[in-house]
Amino acid sequence: MQLPPLAWLDLPTGPLAYRRGGEGPPLLLIHGWGGASRYWVGAFASLADRYDIIALDLPGFGASPPPQGAATLGDLTRSAVFAMQALDLKALAIGGHSFGAGVGLLMAGAFPEQVHRLALVSFGLPRSASEALMITQLHIQMRTNSALLAPWLDVWRPWLALWRPWLRQFWLTPPFPALLASQAVYDLTQIPYPMLAMGVTDLLAMDARVGLEAASSTGDPLVLAAIEHVKAPTLILSGREDPIFPAAAVTALAEALPQSGLVLLDRCGHIPMAEHPVAFYTTLGSFLAA
Description:
By secondary structure, this protein is of the alpha/beta class. Helix content is 47%, strand content 17%. It has an 8-stranded mixed beta sheet with strand order 1-2-4-3-5-6-7-8, with helices on both faces. α3 (99-110) packs across α8.
């Protein structure tokens, strides 16, 4: 199945692009940092016969323009909530990848009666008290740096846009897509070049200020606060060799959510929907149908 075309919502936080296709109960999918709605192409191919799939381009990612205000985890979650309300999704399942898993977690914590199932992909928590302290300090430092740099990145946006086609041409020339992907992917031979190229294109399309502010949400205390309010049965699905959220961090998240089930895919890194799409979507589909 091909990707559904982009549609648009006019939200209080600004215009937001999304893709929608399929029939059945709604399934809201939220991409990660540097991603976009189209990397859920496998969901539309394998789950659209059972679910009404809505995949967002968060503000500043994919086709969506950057928001007028900040783009932290809390701010981008607010945009996703506005989208949920604008689409009148009264009862739904949510799936989020990496940064998008943080968004989904916050939504499930804020709307426990609406979110009936939650899938958190390639996401984790600190593995120890010392690591939690280090990540908290990193969060404070990154938020400070972001606050200082964000105004300048807004000023530079037109010039960065002029450079983007040249950057895209450079980074799409082999072997550079593989070099970029190797930072997150376990086995590059598992991903066809068109999928790699799509990921690189989406990464380069990310607004610089939004990317910086979203990255500064690492260690955001909103995540731990939300966990206490999540009621939905939760699938925690990750690659066993994920270099960004190691298996121990993913296990720590599972232990913090007693209603969760943990699945680790072998020989898989940070992007399981691209690295092992059959196993990934089979696992996700079984969880949603349970």
